[in-house]
């Protein structure tokens, strides 16, 4: 019933109140957004403590926006790729909120949300996250004339030299905006490969903002409805280090 009511509201152009957050990087970012307009936003630079900071950030946003969890109509959560621990905390929190209120939930790619914050029409955007172990997560997006954010290269992980090879096939010598904490860490390696075609944006674009998670989430909901909360999982891209070995047979 909740999905039906919200679909009707969206169809009739009514403003939708969205709670959105992302925990893929060192920064946890939370926002309350109504009809694409930011009402409140909070950020905390404590990747190892996202589990402790996320709910207080939400409560602070609720106070500033003068709303409560009961008012939230749609939940949008960043699904990665990014920090394995951060993503698990984010998805677990989202599912806990869903269980408490049963509002529709939508997962949004974290690299996509970051690209959405800087993508002007006709501009290529390369969002990158530090994947640790000498690797990066990266992708390529472009804003079309109709405002759609098109994915030209799906999220992948690689060492910078290999990432340059993958990216070069898609960028094809075109200028692009590079964003994310991966640029901060491996910018020299990227600049050596792409030179003046690489436009490195300031650190304010290092992590996804809840505002753009909310906008992308609402767009996804308008296009295809809510995700199944029971099966929504992080998009790790890279296999986890947590593997188990079976005992050797005698």
In short:
This protein has 250 residues and is α/β, with parallel strands linked by helices. The chain is built from 7 helices and 10 strands.
Element layout with pairings:
Layout: H1 2-11, E1 17-22, E2 27-34, E3 37-45, H2 50-65, E4 74-78, H3 84-101, E5 105-108, H4 110-116, E6 124-132, E7 135-143, E8 149-158, H5 160-171, E9 176-179, H6 181-194, E10 198-200, H7 210-224
Parallel strand pairs: 1-4, 4-5, 6-9, 9-10
Antiparallel strand pairs: 1-2, 2-3, 6-7, 7-8
Helix pairs in contact: 2-3, 4-7, 5-6
What features would you highlight for this structure?
250 residues; alpha/beta; Nucleotidyltransferase, domain 5; 2 domains; 5-stranded mixed beta sheet; 27% strand; globular; disordered C terminus
CATH class of the largest domain: Alpha Beta
The name of the CATH architecture of the largest domain is: 2-Layer Sandwich
The low-confidence parts are 242-250
Distance from N terminus to C terminus (CA atoms, Å) equals: 57 Å
In total, how many domains does the architecture comprise?
2
Secondary structural class: alpha/beta
**Helices and strands, in N-to-C order?**
HEEEHEHEHEEEHEHEH
- Count of strand segments: 10
Query: What shape does the CA trace take?
Result: globular
> Which superfamily, in CATH terms, is the homologous superfamily of the largest domain?
ATPase, nucleotide binding domain
Summarize the main sheet.
5 strands, mixed
Write down the oligomeric state: single chain
Give the mean pLDDT: 90
**What Rg is obtained from the alpha carbons, in whole angstroms?**
18 Å
**Residue share in β-strands:** 25-35%
């Amino acid at each position: 019933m909740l999905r039906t009511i919200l679909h009707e509201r969206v169809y009739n152009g009514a403003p939708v109140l969205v709670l959105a957050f992302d925990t893929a990087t060192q920064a946890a970012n939370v926002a309350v957004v109504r009809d694409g307009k930011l009402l409140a936003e909070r950020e905390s630079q404590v990747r190892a403590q996202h589990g402790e900071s996320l709910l207080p950030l939400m409560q602070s946003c609720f106070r500033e926006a003068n709303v409560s969890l009961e008012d939230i109509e749609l939940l949008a959560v960043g699904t990665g790729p990014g920090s394995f621990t951060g993503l698990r905390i984010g998805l677990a929190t989202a599912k806990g909120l869903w269980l408490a209120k049963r509002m529709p939930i939508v997962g949004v790619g974290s690299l996509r949300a970051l690209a959405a914050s800087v993508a002007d029409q006709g501009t290529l955007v390369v969002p990158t996250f530090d994947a640790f172990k000498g690797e990066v997560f990266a992708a390529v997006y472009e804003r079309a004339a109709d405002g759609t954010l098109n994915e030209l290269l799906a999220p992948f992980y690689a060492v910078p030299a290999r990432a340059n090879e993958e990216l070069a096939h898609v960028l094809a010598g075109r200028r692009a905006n590079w964003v994310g904490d991966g640029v901060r860490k491996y910018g020299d390696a990227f600049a050596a490969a792409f030179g003046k075609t690489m436009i490195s944006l300031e650190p304010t674009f290092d992590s996804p903002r809840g505002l753009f998670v909310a906008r992308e989430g609402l767009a996804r909901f308008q296009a295809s409805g809510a995700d199944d909360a029971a099966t929504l999982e992080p998009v790790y891209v890279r296999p986890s280090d947590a593997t188990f070995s079976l005992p050797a047979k005698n």
